[in-house]
Fold this protein.
Amino acid sequence: MVNTAHDTARPTPAASPWSAVGVSAFDELVYQAMLHQPDADAAGWALLTGASPARVRESCDRLLALGFLQPPDSMGGLRAVDPRVAIRALIRRRETESELLAATAEEMATAYEAGLLREEPSRLVEVVSGEGANAARLEELYAHAEHEVCVFDTPPYLAPRTPQLDLQADLLSRGIVYRTVYAATALEDPDVLSHAWKMVELGEEARVLPSVPVKLLVVDGRRAMLPLTATPAGGYCAAVVRHSAVTEALQKLFDLAWQQATPLGRPTEDAELSEGERALTRLLAAGMKDEAVARHLGVSLRTLRRRVSDLQERLGAASRFQLGARAAQRGWL
């Protein structure tokens, strides 16, 4: 009696790695036969594979098109190409085709999204409510970033910064460009300032403005996220905007602000500056008010102004603006 239960439980054979580059099991068999007996012909390879000469010739045509065989010449018939050369060339060709297909998918996705918006304009904006839902949507946007993330960073802060720091660090490790324009008022918070320095050290490109119009995240110029509530009392509520004229306008808004903002970076190690003076130049470059700078440094306003005056005198600067310009020229910013 046949044990049918055993037969149905028989494992499915694993797919051959050759199938990944478009080579069938029979074509692989023919190629192996040619490698073992390079001086044979279709009839000889047919004997090795147990197939008809006609089927072997059809297989040879396919292998020739894939680059596994050299065409016949005056020296003889078909010859196998070194498998190391043939397989690597085929893999490179497949990679190129995959990249072209991915680019085509992006173009088709644009048309798809435009069609959805024409059919139902309400799809343009998704409203996300609740701290957990906002965090999950933010993580999803970061995970799908391919080229660049642009951020306006300004108070108030309704969520912990630690998860965002981890997400940003992951993006930077993937080679994604990360640009942030901070509001100067945001950097008056020691935690925010510390976060900014950490991001700059990891590769973030950061700049500062006295204020920015709204919290904003733009991913690849195609997706944007911005809050709909501005206070903790309003809860966690944000809008996610799909690729459209709106996201293009938000990207242009960010780029205009970026052009006007002051670079935020750590000064180089300079023997002319003490550690306290380096900290002072960083805070001044962030555009902070005297009160905030004094609070960060733990000194009185009188002491702070005396230190700023000393720096101006050393650099021959008549104003704070000129002080910042000359400090930048020396690589202090």
